[in-house]
Amino acid sequence: MVQVSALGPTDTASTVELLAAQRESAVVRSERGLEVLRYQEALEALRHPQLFRAKLFLWRHDRIGLGPGFAREFLTRTLNSQEGEQRSRLRNPLARILAPRSIRKLTDGVQDIVAKILDDIHNPDDVDFLEDVCWRLPSMVYCMMVSAPMELAPTIQRLSDSILAPMLTVDPTRVRELEDARREAYDLAVKHIEERRRNLGDDFTSALIREQIDGNLTEQELHDIGAALLEASVDNTAHSAAITVARLLERPDDWHRLTEDRSLIAGATEETIRLWPRFRTHMRYASEDMDFADAALARDDMVFISVAAAQQDPAVFPDPEKFDITRPLVPGTLVFGQGKYSCIGMHLARLEMHVLLNAVLERFPSARLLEFEEEEGPFIRSVTKCRISLSGN
Ligand code: HEM
User: Fold this and answer.
1) Residue 22 C-alpha to ligand 1 middle, in angstroms?
2) CB of 80 closer than 6 A to ligand 1?
């Protein structure tokens, strides 16, 4: 089996290095565990009943030095840290609420929010697209979805970043910020839920409260899910939306084609997600001694599933390095995970990205990318700069 020696416990190989290893083998050993590089094996790993994820949420927080206290207790209880029946108990109500049918009903509201965000732009010649558009969109959509006042959107944005970014970018200097934000987000979610309880409507918070009234969730679980939804809604969508719009603007021919044929928006979005996935790697561990793809794993051995490499597997994506907005939508992206741990918010994230892209194409067909920078970390790619001239000037 090929050895990828450049991979250390906090490090990762570049996509080029991983693709070179992929040519030799579907899975390779590294210093940190098993690296899964090809699409079919990645899919199998993500769906494998003996490859677990529960311990990794706390493990990731241990790596940035999170001590005992409120944030740790919350993380121990939350969906991400569960397996088996408790996982299904917590996941099912949320999955029902975020199902495609419910998300489709949000389309008009998301369109209104995007229109407002674009109306608010003072100088279309030079827009900080990441800050003034991509961060605002999911935080405002969250407020709409749970019936919270829109004035809360900047707070939601700040909290989501403070909670997720330190863990995802493995930044120990931000652990105190994360702890404070977790407390604040939890208190805010509980206050909102308890206010809403007195005036139930047809929003997502009311739907969650009804799950508790029907006995599907305890009060503690209801509060925890409310807080988890707040943080999960924003950060990844903001970065992914910026990546999608910027990568398309980098390719004026594709951009022009999209201005003439909006039916290509879904394919164009998936193609940017394929080549520049927000999540570069998913992690699992062996729940028992086992074999996977001809490799022996001892209990607790780590498995790193390279979304970046698998999404350029030539066996599944012909001419994998070629950017092609007309690629078939199936086989699909791995960026949202698969199966029992998969992202419950993927339908909402896609809706937001499609509506945003459609509105920019409609109102600003001559838009031009001024500056775009991103960082590839061990697990995610983060946009650090995205300036766009919407006017094209
Ligand atoms: C483009 C934006 C997004 C990306 C790239 C993304 C990605 C992910 C990934 C990679 C996972 C873990 C999957 C795994 O380990 O197999 C996940 C889980 C999750 N996501 Fe997302 N997500 C996005 C947007 C959202 C949104 C908008 C929401 C909520 C409204 C959301 C809610 C969740 C939840 C609740 C989980 C936990 C699922 C579980 O543990 O069962 N996500 N997401």
Assistant:
1) 26
2) yes
The CATH number for 70-278+322-389, chosen from 3.60.40.10, 3.40.50.970, 3.40.50.2300, 1.10.630.10, is 1.10.630.10
- Cβ(269)–Cβ(244) under 8 Å? yes
pLDDT tens-digit series, residues 336-364? 999 999 999 999 999 999 999 999 999 99
CA gap 245, 354 in Å, rounded: 10
- Residue 137: closest CA among 109, 162, 164, 104: 109
Please work out whether the CB of residue 265 comes within 6 Å of at least one atom of ligand 1.
Answer: no
**Ligand 1 atom with least separation from CA of 241:** 1
Q: Is the pTM of this model over 0.90?
A: yes
Nearest CA to ligand 1 atom 40: 80
Q: What distance lies between CA 251 and its chain's CA centroid?
A: 24
Torsion angles phi and psi, residue 376, rounded to 5: -100, 105
Strand, helix or coil at 95?
Answer: helix
333, 42 Cβ separation under 8 angstroms = no
In the chain, domain spans: 70-278+322-389
**How far apart are the C-alpha atoms of 87 and 224, rounded to whole Å?**
13
269 ligand 1 Cβ < 6 A: no
Q: Which DSSP string do the residues of 153-208 spell out, in sequence order? A: HHHHHHHHHHHHHHHHTT-GGGHHHHHHHHHHHHHHHHHHHHHHHTT--SSHHHHH
User: Ligand 1 centre from 80 Cα, in Å?
Assistant: 10
Per residue in 91-136, pLDDT (tens digit) is 999 999 999 999 999 999 999 999 999 999 999 999 999 999 999 9
Q: Is the beta carbon of 53 within 6 A of some atom in ligand 1?
A: yes
CA distance linking residue 45 with residue 329, whole number of Å: 21
